[in-house]
């Protein structure tokens, strides 16, 4: 409840979408990682509030992202996203949508039943051969390939529109 009140106070009038674009849990250069500039077609939206769920992204980096992409990505104060996993789970539960690569944020959101768009490798070992996420029904998968990454972000933006229109 705490984070629901904070988000309603700080980000009124539009759905609140949490994003994360990289992981530090393994050396996943290339396919698994994304660069924030690739998210431009997602972050240029004005119909939602974007907040950063990126644990290794400070206010300075978010400021640089906003300047270079001309977007409005917001930091969240009052939480150590890396160390306070119970608070991170509470924050994610309070969001309208999570958009993430395959990292802790996508998995927590899926486990909590939060609507989630996950940019993921096309073969997805955890999908058990399916084109959906069998463990997390609230997660929509978007294949992220090296050849056509731009299409993945366009599909993500389209999915955001579909999902927020339902809320």
By CATH reckoning, the class would read Alpha Beta
Biggest sheet details: 6 strands, parallel
Superfamily (CATH H level) name: Glycogen Phosphorylase B
Q: List low-confidence stretches.
A: none
What number is the mean pLDDT? 90
What is the CATH architecture annotation?
3-Layer(aba) Sandwich
Percentage of residues assigned to helices = 25-40%
| Estimated radius of gyration | 15 Å
Number of helices: 6
Number of strands: 6
How is the CATH topology named? Rossmann fold
Task: Give the ordered list of helices and strands.
Answer: HEHEHEHEHEEH
Question: What general outline do the C-alpha atoms trace?
Answer: globular
Strand-residue proportion = 15-25%
SSE-based structural type:
alpha/beta
For the biggest β-sheet, the strand order reads: 3-2-1-4-5-6
Distance between the termini: 18 Å
Integer tally of domains: 1
